[in-house]
Fold:
Amino acid sequence: MTFPYEYAIIQAVPRIERGELINVGVVLYCQRQDFLNARTHLDENRLRALDPTADVPAITTALDAWARTCAGGGPSADMRLGERFRWLVAPRSTILRAGPVHMGLTTDPATELDRLVDLLVR
Structure:
């Protein structure tokens, strides 16, 4: 049986005024399977190509916060999975942001998340 899911690419924008970005992860939500998770991969060399002074530890910490939010940590503790996903993908002007939300079908959300990270980030 296949299930619909939504996902967005997590993008790092080290210098917002330049508008340049790199893909650093994917957040995937599958309501029917009660699944919400983010997988990340920060390619430091690609990031430094955009901004040699990028604060890598700060970006890594921010990426970890996406995973904590998916798991219900911090302010997201009282939110349902769908609310957490919408909070994460809401437009923002910070060093990390979500790209447009896309949809798909899968039999296994965790495997699909790994596939999307390999395809879109690594």
Observations:
- The chain has a mean pLDDT of 94.
- The CA atoms of residues 26 and 116 lie 7 Å apart.
- Residues 3-120 form one domain.
